[in-house]
Amino acid sequence: MMETTYTNPHAPTDATLDEWVETVVATHFDPDGGTPYWLEWQDDRGIDVRERVDSFADLRDVFDPFDQDVLRTLSAAEFAPQSLDGDRRVYETGGTTGAPKRVVMREYWREQARWTARLLAEWEFPTGNVLGLAPPGGANNAGTFVQHLAHEWDALPYHVTMDPRWAKRLSERPDDREFDEYVDHLLEQAERVLESQPIAVLFTTARLLERPRVRDLVADSSIEGIVHGGTALDRDTHRVFREEWYADVALAGEYGNTLMGVAPEAPPSLRSPSERAYHLDYVPCYPYFVPEIVDDDGEVVPYGERGTVRLTVLTEEFFLPLLPERDAAIRIEGAGDLPWDWVRTPGTSDRASEDAVEGVY
Amino acid sequence: MLPVVSDGERETVRSTTVEGIDGPVAEAARAPTVRVRDALSTAREEGFDALADVPIAELLDRLATAGALFLGEGAPSAGADPLEPFETYRRRVTEATGLPAGWVRTSAHWLAVGLRHAAESLRAQSPTGELDVYDDPTYTRETTVGLAFTPRVRVLGASMPANDPTVYAWPALAIGMRIPIVLRPSDREPFTAIRLARALLAAGIPPSAVHVLPGDRAVGETICREADHALAFGGAEAVAPFRDDHAVETYGPGESVAVLGRDPTDRELDTLARGVRRAGGRACFNLTRIVATGDCDPDALAEGVADRLAGADAGPLHDERTDVPAFVDREAAVRIDDAIAAIDGSDVTAADRETRLVERDGAARLLPTVLRTDELVPEFPFPFVGVTERARSALPDCLEGAYLAVAIGDDDLERRLVRSPAFRKVYGGGYPASVDLRETHETYLASFLYETTTYDPA
Predict the structure, then answer these.
(1) Chain B residues lying within 8 Å of A179, measured CB to CB
(2) For chain A, which terminus, N or C, has the lower number of CB atoms within 10 Å?
(3) Which residues span the domain enclosing A114?
(4) A234 and B37 in contact by Cβ < 8 A?
């Protein structure tokens, strides 16, 4: 059972989870300005979702597991509230498990950057100009997030953009050479930026950090902190990163994706890496998204146990209930002023790993 | 925990359980990929230079000492921890692989022989036939042609198998040739790798030159792809990613073969049966296929080999007299039994027993099997051979890919085998009596670790 009475001191809302569910449902099921897809879904079933949903727990009574194929085929505007106006954008997932999924967002990534910056402040994480090394630009959210994160720090974003779909195709080839050439192409661009620009924070993937050339690049630069995300990181690699390869800089992970948002690594002041046996503990942006860790029957697993991630996203820009994710993770208790459930060491589940090519982004 | 050995011993946060016949045998570390890259870098830089600083005679003395230490003999150099007793190592290998005690001991012995007699192997691979070319690479040919025998790589990687400890002699010989090694042992048998590394280090081999990284299969793949040159041991599936990689020597599957142009003598039959049975039938040099051609009667040949295998001992695994290995995973034995049953042919050994798959000493065994068949059978990890007949005109092309070939009673065919680049170890007249590390393993290490260059000081 999920605890729903907490409030998040770093989020744009001070609502509890249950209160926030009501707000979001009221927005998306508003007959006048609601979301076309959800209004039609409601009509098809002959129910009034606003009547039926007062709490997070009610979502399971009303909604089935969300079929993510909807986001692959639906016109993106149909999944956004009609009341959402202003400078909206269509964001697409990386497409590592099939055709990309699309959602419309306006402020969400700015809010996620603000949340991340506030949590990193608890780390006393360095701030300043950010170099995004390989976060995809264009339709993907990652480049946008880097831009907003730099702006939160009143600093400049720099970008070395990767095409994740081309990288994915290269990584599927039996011969690694073309993939390596592409990575070298990215690193050469990063080196050129670092030669002349005062970069304080590197934002990149764990997989790229495994390359000695990136280690050397960081050691010879002005970089003081690294935020890594996008790919799973095993505990032994994490330990080597933290204690050897990148021991001289601050290192923080983030777990997230286009549909979810960002769960930054928990501040070490609340639980140090050695205390958590080098697991990566991530703090979801409660109450905006709730990654529940569930068993095969869809029940939330006890603390300390592994299960698959079932994601619910609750924003006034889009509403995504009970989405079965490809990731498996361990459910752990939160701590300090972040007491809601955290997510430990997520990675591609065995079930999905045969189909997915992870590790590109 | 069986640690990562790379500039010291390190345990990892994650580990894997090495399962054995009677339950878990040990926990083995999981080296992350970044540790592989550190190991390759250290080996390539400090390791290569450290080995270059040791005179060849001294280096070979240290290898010989390591061989003795591996067998539990001799004393480590000052300050080094002693190795665990040899018998403890032996029992763990038997438990984890099902290889009977006698075969583990024999195989470990040959590994130690390889280390003790590394000088002979290095001389055999020297362009001058002498060892001093490893200290001073320059030499002269045809009176005035100045040449040099120089390393073409600075680190050798290897993804190692679990079938036979002797195979570790080949990467260990690279140390004698002043090339550092980075190895990923099989998860089924990491004991030999760790013991060898400890023996080498205790004997005074520089720590920067010896790296053993137990880890996921990706560790082996990274080693093979990123080392200057590498050895990939294993079955067809394991070595497939490297078949077209010129920087990786692929060793496996063995599918060794004997070809007979006439009926064998009793002594020749004895050697063939030994070629099926030795090392528990799991080594690349074990005979998988015996081919009758010309005047050789395949039925009598199969009967003759079967008679000699009938006495193979499937007793307790820790008994030195036991021949027949066990399967830690009973389902694997069932799958192999089913696969053999699906081959079109007759089991010549079936008359002596009720079933091929038996339970002995608490573990699944597959009893030695001779199949008289028209097919060229695949390799299986127990004493198993298919006896078949082929027209002389089809030979030796239909046998390409064999690790080792024996030719009996057909001198012309024997010469064709020797001339064919597809056969890299050819023995005439019978199956060889022993492992001779002066010979090639598919090819000489020197053929890819070294190259001949020109050096004219004038």
Answers:
(1) none
(2) N
(3) 107-283
(4) no
Question: Shortest Cα distance from B98 to chain A (angstroms)?
Answer: 29
In a shared domain, residues B242 and B261: no
Chain A residues with beta carbon closer than 8 angstroms to that of B222: none
pLDDT in tens, A27-55: 999 999 999 999 999 999 999 999 999 99
Q: Which of B34, B37, B226 to mutate to test the interface with A (most CBs of A within 10 A)?
A: B34
**B37·A212 Cβ contact <8 A:** yes
What is the ipTM for the molecules in this complex? 0.80
Digit-coded pLDDT (tens) for A287-344: 999 999 999 999 999 999 999 999 999 999 999 999 998 889 999 999 999 999 999 9
The answer on B79 and B202 residing in a single domain is yes
Residue B376: name the closest of B440, B258, B291, B452 by CA.
B291
Coil/strand/helix, residue A300 = strand
Name the residue in chain A with its Cα closest to that of B221. A176
State whether A237 and B14 contact (CB < 8 Å): no
Q: Round the average pLDDT of chain B to a whole number and report it.
A: 92
Of A235, A237, A278, the CB nearest to B33: A237
Domain count along chain B: 2
**Distance, CA of A49 to chain centre:** 28
When the pLDDT of each residue in chain A is averaged and rounded to a whole number, the result is 91
- Residue A361's pLDDT is what? 32
Q: How many domains does chain A have?
A: 1
- Interface check for B391 against chain A (CB to CB < 8 A): the answer is no
Contacts of B31 in chain A (CB under 8 A): 236
pLDDT of B437 reads 73
Give domain status of residue A30, yes or no.
no
Q: What's the average model confidence in pLDDT over B229-243?
A: 86
Residue of chain A nearest B222, judged by CA positions: A176
Which segments of chain A have a pLDDT < 70? 1, 96-97, 348-361
CATH number, domain with residue A277: 3.40.50.12780
Across the interface, do A240 and B35 touch by the CB < 8 Å criterion?
yes
The reply to whether B217 and B314 lie within a common domain is no
Which residues of chain B neighbour A210 with C-beta distances below 8 Å? Answer: 33-34, 37
Q: Is B14 on the interface with A (CB under 8 A)?
A: yes
B14 falls within a domain: yes
d(CA A150, CA A144): 10
Same domain as B361, residue B226: no
Is some CB atom of chain A closer than 8 A to the CB atom of B356?
no
In a domain, residue B431? The reply is no
**Same domain membership, residue B95 and residue B75:** yes
For residue B428, tell me if it sits in a domain. no
CATH number of the CATH domain containing B43: 3.40.605.10
Q: Which residue of B has its CA nearest to A173?
A: B241
Q: Which structural domain, as residue segments, surrounds residue B278?
A: 256-423
* Domain annotation covers residue A115: yes
